[in-house]
UniProtKB/TrEMBL annotation:
Transposase IS116/IS110/IS902 C-terminal domain mapped to chain residues: 238-319
Any GO MF annotation of the entry: transposase activity
Domain of life: Bacteria
rRNA-binding keyword on record: no
Protein's recorded name: Transposase
A GO BP entry: DNA transposition
Keyword Transferase: no
Domain Transposase IS110-like N-terminal residue range list: 19-166
Swiss-Prot/TrEMBL keywords: Coiled coil
Parts forming coiled coils: 206-233
Length: 360
């Protein structure tokens, strides 16, 4: 998570203990610090429901107003994070310890947990985690299945074409010149006999791959239908925006999370998507450079939306023509459009109308 781009809760006096947590797949390590920085205790729990409840019980030994500073709230710590948020506790995402800290103190689970807690006490950059409890979490999970199905389908198509290169001449000539759809349908309809020769083996393999592709096509259609309904329910305004379809909306919603209010401004969302320029000034030189950080999937989604609008949206095309007249290159125009689209998407995610309907 790019925490530097998100809202930064600052330490206050509304807590009586800070719990730093270093998360792992099978266990978590927690360290309790007093508000003055004194170490109170450390605790290790398994990543199961009983472990989460045991951690909450252990925390209550030090007071009734804890703050949890966790690493990996969207990965290994996702289950614990959701449990703590559901119980009404304050949870923030802590950055990983920097390299200088690890050089000085070494690498250990309890050290990492303590560093997370001290980062909160120091007020250094931390962020509000995604809640992961509503439509967007459902979208994220279905996207994983969809992307996997697309990858498997692409591999199967490539394997069919590779098999045809070395297939017996009669079979290769029979399938030559067919479109992709015709090729898959023809191969799926093969009825090979016994495995008595390379020709029969080729037909068996081609039929297996073709039927796998057909099954994946059916699976993808179901997933896209579900994602369409979920994105419409999560943010109807986003889907109504020009050039934003199921894929783009799914990616942008996942980047923002179920609780987009954690993003303090449209500039923070643009930075999260890698669509904001970074200062690169020195001395009398004042310049900015391309941002290659942030969520690259979200950045790619913004790029695709910009390309669609440049092709079909008249107001965007007029804007691009005007900027070309000012000497900007196509790459610079697209970067500006991505920044504008990020601003528009942020307002839609927060339930507000966009400032304008097109870049101007």
């Amino acid at each position: 998570m790019a925490s530097a781009t998100l809202a930064q809760p600052q330490p206050d006096d509304a807590y009586d203990v800070v719990i730093g947590i270093d998360t792992h797949r099978d266990f978590h390590v927690a360290v309790a610090l007093a508000p003055n920085g004194g170490k109170l205790d450390e605790y290790r729990i398994p990543t199961i429901q009983q472990g989460y409840q045991a951690l909450i019980g252990w925390t209550e030994l030090f007071g009734s107003r804890p703050v949890f500073a966790m690493e990996g709230t969207s990965s290994f710590g996702a289950g614990l994070c959701r449990e703590l948020l559901a119980a009404g506790f304050s949870v923030i995402e802590a950055n990983r310890p920097d390299r200088s800290t690890r050089r000085r103190r070494g690498k250990d689970d309890s050290i990492d947990a303590e560093v997370a807690a001290r980062a909160y006490l120091a007020g250094t950059t931390m962020s509000i985690p995604k809640s992961g409890s509503e439509h967007v979490e459902m979208i994220r999970m279905l996207n994983v299945a969809k992307d996997s199905a697309i990858d498997c389908r692409t591999k199967a198509i490539n394997q069919i074409r590779a098999l045809l290169v070395t297939a017996p001449p009669a079979l290769r000539e029979r399938l030559a010149g067919l479109s992709r759809g015709e090729l898959i349908s023809t191969c799926a309809a093969f009825r090979p006999g016994a495995l008595a020769c390379p020709l029969m083996a080729a037909k068996w393999a081609l039929r297996s791959l073709a039927r796998r592709i057909q099954a994946l096509d059916h699976e993808l259609a179901e997933l896209l239908s579900d994602l369409d309904a979920l994105t419409q329910a999560a943010c109807p305004g986003l889907r109504q925006s020009y050039g934003i379809g199921v894929d783009g909306a799914s990616i942008l919603l996942t980047a923002a999370g179920d609780n987009p209010e954690r993003l303090r401004s449209e500039a923070s969302f643009a930075a999260l998507c890698g669509a904001s320029p970074l200062p690169a000034s020195s001395g009398n030189t004042r310049r900015h450079r391309l941002n290659r950080g942030g969520n690259r999937q979200a950045n790619a989604a913004l790029y695709r939306i910009a390309v669609v609008r440049l092709r079909y949206h008249q107001a965007t095309r007029d804007y691009a023509e005007r900027r070309r007249g000012e000497g900007l290159s196509n790459k610079e125009i697209i970067r500006g459009l991505k920044r504008f689209i990020a601003r528009e998407v942020f307002r839609l995610l927060r339930g507000r109308p966009p400032l304008r309907t097109a870049a101007a």
